[in-house]
Amino acid sequence: MNKIILIIFALLIVLPTIYYFIIYKPTKENGGRV
Question: What is residue 3's predicted lDDT score, i.e. its pLDDT?
């Protein structure tokens, strides 16, 4: 059961990071066009 909780917390940390690199960074580099 503890492993499931750790996986959930890991996803909560990793998913926003992936979102940042996919959405926020490209938007900033392209002058906010995307």
Answer: 96
What does the alpha-carbon distance between residue 27 and residue 8 come to, in Å, rounded to a whole number?
Answer: 28
Question: What is the tens place of the pLDDT at every residue in 1-34?
Answer: 799 999 999 999 999 999 888 887 777 777 755 5
Total domains in the chain come to 1
Which among 13, 15, 34, 11 has a CA at the least distance from the CA of 24? 34
DSSP SS3 for 31: coil
Tell me whether residue 20 is in a domain: yes
Q: State the residue range of the domain holding 3.
A: 1-25
Q: What are phi and psi of 29, to 5 degrees?
A: -70, -30
